[in-house]
Write a structure and sequence with these properties.
This protein is an alpha+beta fold and 145 residues long. It has one domain (7-144): HesB-like domain (Hypothetical Protein Aq_1857, Chain: A). It has 3 helices and 10 strands; from the N terminus they run H-E-E-H-E-E-E-E-H-E-E-E-E. The protein has helices at 7-22, 45-57, 104-110, and strands at 24-25, 42-44, 64-71, 77-84, 92-95, 99-102, 114-119, 124-129, 135-136, 142-144. The protein starts with 6 loop residues before the first helix and ends with a strand.
């Protein structure tokens, strides 16, 4: 006799899985002294898992994942995600299951952001959900404040 699972049970389970993957993981800043207020950036569990996989594939020693911004792009300011071999002097280091480094200037633009990893039909990759963003370009790689 085969066990039957109702469609509503499958839908609920899928919804719960998506909610769990999208739930932000709170962080505590290890070096928040040189900025006022809470130095808070969050990552979803999916973003943490994908970053850890990418770091594991690297052959170079990697201290963590650097998040930042730089001038340029369609909208004026572009997001930067790169591997960090070491922390720089004024970096804020956030500890998850991996180290996340953010320089003080970038933290001004990224405070309150959530880094997620999205998988869509035509694309996949890291995605910032930034409350400071007033407008963004269509590709999602740059924004204005």
């Amino acid at each position: 006799m085969e066990a039957q699972v109702s469609e509503s049970t499958q839908t609920t389970s899928a919804k719960e899985a998506r909610a769990r993957d999208a739930a932000p993981v709170s962080v505590v800043g290890v070096n928040p002294k040189n900025i006022e207020g809470t130095a808070e950036i969050q990552l979803t569990q999916k973003a943490i898992d994908m970053a850890k996989k990418a770091i594991e594939r690297r052959t170079q020693l990697t201290f963590g994942l650097r998040l930042g911004v730089k001038g340029g792009g369609c909208s004026g300011v572009s997001y930067v995600i790169e591997f960090a071999e070491k922390a720089r002097g004024r970096d804020h280091v956030f500890e998850y299951e991996l180290n996340v480094l953010v320089d003080p200037k970038s933290l001004i633009y990224l405070r309150g952001s959530i880094l997620d990893y999205e998988v869509k039909l035509m694309q996949h990759g890291f995605k910032f959900r930034n409350p400071n963003e007033k407008a963004g370009c269509g590709c999602g790689e740059s924004f204005t404040v």
